[in-house]
Amino acid sequence: MSNVIRNRHRALLKAETHLHKTGRVGQLSFCLISPSRYQTGMSSLGFQTVYALLSNEADIRCERAFFPDREDLEEYRRSGTPLLSLESSTPLADFDVIAFSTSFEPDYLNIPIILNMARIPLYSGKRSQSDPLVIAGGAAFFINPEPVADFIDAICIGEGEDIIPKITATLLSPVDDGRIGLLQALSTISGVYIPAFYQPSYQGGVLAGYTSQNNAPLPVVRMPVCLELHEPSSSQILTENTEFGDMFLVEVSRGCPRGCRFCSSGFIYGAFRQQPFNNVISLIDQGLAHRKKVGLVGAAVSDYAEIGRLCQYIVEKGAKVSVSSLRIDRIDTEMLDALIASGHKTISLAPEGGSQRMRDVIRKNLTEEQILTACEMLISRDILNLKLYFIIGLPGETDADLDEMVRLIEVIRERVIERGRANKRLGEISVSVNPFIPKPFTPFQWCGMEPLPSLERKVKLLENRLRRLSNVKLKVESLRESYLQALLSRGDRRLAPLLISMADGVNLKKSAKICAIDTDSYVQRTISAEEVMPWSVVGTAETALLRREYERALEVINR
Q1: Is residue 23 predicted with pLDDT exceeding 70?
Q2: 286, 337, 393, 492: most buried by Cβ count inside 10 Å?
Q3: H/E segment holding residue 387
Q4: Which of 127, 503, 285, 252 is nearest to 511 (CA)?
Q5: Are 231 and 221 in contact (CB under 8 A)?
Q6: pTM of the model
């Protein structure tokens, strides 16, 4: 066994500060796994919340594991060491349960790699009584679990605060018939999906439907929670070795009230829910004993009803506050003053649609006047560095919409430059452009992604138009990585061999050829209203509602 790996584990553990009780020795051993590297995985509030929930169970011993960084990955391969847990350097295969916490579809690529490194059979149907039970949860799984469904024994469709105690109680109870009996017992829990109990059928290469066995429900309905019954999610382990190492993170809300047609956050979490103010500040007071910067977390942070009061509270405590981005029509002056007092030099805004037509198509509910008013509020307070997020390749987009995007950027730039001249200080506009990716459980789930050559042409158009503008920098998300994300978002179980091939180091194009998979048919095809979707096996959102919103978008496109 590699002492190099053990020493690195010890160094990471030594740098951590735990804010909850740990070290309980239980009769059931869990290893919670992030398919991201430590620096990213430990920044996930979802991962930390699940770790605390498991660690606080008296009869459970919970440890952690992460996808190795490049240096450790090379050491694992060189030494032949199986993947080890962080706390005790125990091989993953020696745990009773291993649990993946996964927020983003691209991390699906690392699941077969981790199982291989752990020496656990990839396919759930090939595991024996001596193998760990493999479970999974996180936002990625209740969007579309199917590309990795064959690798997982049990999947949590929903939020962990309610579902995890039920799962652990079942795992700690005696059952008959070994592994199959345990899976049957788990399938009776609302929100638990046992992929082996559901068989997909295909006609003409297209998914035709699912049949369920063992009285398993179809679909498996997402389980929401009442946030007021639970302590807000917050940092449980603090370490500087992460992306947000200088912050104490606390969740202020869950879901999004906006319902933008391209974004899953407004649909997969159900109703927009907010944490009570007093519950949030109670946790912040605890966190300020360890960090002097608080990160407020939520898909719609600026929609939190008392966002200004909360930000001012943090600043008055002598601390700094951070938020990911601001909703353009919800820039609270108290919040803005608190961000400035916290030293923010750059503020991110997300018009997303470059033209009014596109903003209407995606139901962004923003006018150009509102965008410019928000920019003026920032510029007038000498925030001259702005980051603007846009999406290209949206349904119905034309070059005229891109022309409008460029014009809007030019108008904002002129206002930044004018203020900068007055203050003798230059500002910069960072334009972040991402291609549209059709996501399950959104009104645009039926749309195909625009072909890569067309997107490449649009990127060049923007590069040529924006290159001549001083103080403007363009950053474009990798089109090929976006294509892969779309494939994983829309894929079904037939992608499993492709993921295994890619786990062996074969690139996507070659893996698709080896596996005889037409990836374009998943990514670019418009899906008919009558067709069964791979993710229909789980009931995360109401299809009829999504379809109505899709048809309303088409009405705007066809005007």
Answers
A1: no
A2: 393
A3: strand 385-392
A4: 503
A5: no
A6: 0.95
